[in-house]
DNA sequence: GGGTAATCCATCAGGAGAGG
DNA sequence: CCTCTCCTGATGGATTACCC
């Protein structure tokens, strides 16, 4: 088995291999930069450093694409395998035995999922892993990835953005939306037409500074406006408002089915 | 003209070394 | 051991060059 030349590896920033792999996959400096969530100029610097260290052009611009040189093609597979092995070595842990574990997991939730999932999750964890405790933490979409990076939470459950490549994601279920209103206060025919929906005054769940909350993107996409008169981060506040005020709200169907009027 | 790569320059973080 | 200063490298914004 050959020995590792630590001195040479120390002088070679191994992140450059990640940059090379991204360039190999994208054949574009700009797209490779986007893939690694850095700017194009930083990726261009990485490429120039790689060119200097490996003494080869590596990628030659041909029209709109960066064509790999024979040297780059020869390096592609070994580097990809190396990165795969490195990732495997870093992420693989000893077998997890929930029944023997004694620790607290912090889970970042969006508010509606916390109330939906925590009761059954706690019951299941208590059944299979009595030594494990669960700590629910509020998690806003704009800060959830930083909370994961800082170790504030171990896991996040909710409707969040993609984050970085290191953030693993799994789809739990597709979310649908349902309208809720108090029929004693609002005279609406079900199913509600789009024009009737847009004509109402609305109460919404909002986790951020926008009063349009989770509907902001949908409204912009559909190029429509609704009259939002109230927004709050907790869905129970919104549902209580709907019960006492002639407003309509749009909530995740699971919440509406559990707690709706 | 639009898209993309390369380059220049400013900023920031981290490390090394000097001095108290 | 701690603090300060300087140096180095990474990064991003702005700009330029190049290609279709």
Automatic annotation (TrEMBL):
GO terms for molecular function: DNA binding; DNA-binding transcription factor activity. The keyword Transcription applies. Residues 12-69 form the HTH lysR-type domain. Keywords: DNA-binding, Transcription, Transcription regulation. Belongs to the LysR transcriptional regulatory family. PANTHER family: HTH-TYPE TRANSCRIPTIONAL REGULATOR LEUO-RELATED, TRANSCRIPTIONAL REGULATORY PROTEIN. This is LysR family transcriptional regulator.
